Amino acid sequence: MVNPMQDHAILQDRLPLLPWMDPRTRRLPGILPVEGQGWLTQDEAYGPQMALRDRLIAAQAPAVHALLPEAEPAAAELYGIILDRLANTPGFKITATSAHRPDGGEVPLDPAQPLRTLGRLVQEDLCLLQARGEEYRLTGAILCFPASWSLDQKIGRQMTDIHTPVAVYDDGMARRVNRLFDAIRPEQPLWRMNYLTYDDHVLFQPRREGEKRPQPTDHTYIRCERQCLLRLPVTRAVVFTIHTYVVDADTVTQDELAALRAAVH
């Protein structure tokens, strides 16, 4: 896949776990409680991923950022929570006007653009989901590393509509997800992890509904998303975070790779 924003692979050394090998995470939805405050993490790909995020946010902002007016209070709340956390995270230096990142990058702090600012500080993509009636809607996001979906097509839509092309996301799954979202407590974030094989390394892979991802033939890379769900205590919005891992397939054993291919193809 040709992408002018990323001309070489940005890889982690290994996956933090193999979700297709663990019965707790192998089956949908595979939700587990986050230990401590681990809904934000940094790994060895932080510097290269952040450089790519900088380029995408500067050059393709309409494709990677959206914020509906109704989500502005939630985005402001998340902005404050993450900046407070980074102020106590080794490698960051937060001042009144800027943030110094562990990779040496300097990011101006702009509370008028909370998600775009946060997107240049943390590896995670950040999506805001808010309840309307019986369903949750996507009301804001910074999404630099989409895996086969487009933010401009999904913003403002309900979870059922967002997942329309996904065969396993039927009415029963939708009801379970809504109940799960309703039950999320601010003090207990949740997480899950998905898994696929790819033949290319590109992190920014938006696709429109009906546009299928090319099926891999060589299975060169493994791409996983560690997805966390947390409830903001004041606005009560749900934050959906996505930490993307891409590793060489040879970082797992042949048996583990065979099990992965059997699980997803």
Order of helices and strands: HEHHEHEEEHEEHHHEEEEH
Going by helix content, strand content and strand pairing, the class is: alpha+beta
pLDDT below 50 for ≥5 consecutive residues: which ranges? none
Q: Give the termini distance in whole angstroms.
A: 20 Å
Question: How many strand segments?
Answer: 11
Portion in helices: 25-40%
Q: What is the residue-mean pLDDT, rounded to a whole number? A: 93
Main β-sheet: number of strands, strand sense, barrel status?
Answer: 8 strands, antiparallel
| Individual helix count | 9
| Beta fraction | 15-25%
Alpha-carbon Rg, integer: 18 Å
Report the principal-axis shape: globular
Can you summarize this structure?
With 265 residues, the chain is an alpha+beta fold. Helices cover 28% and strands 22% of the residues.
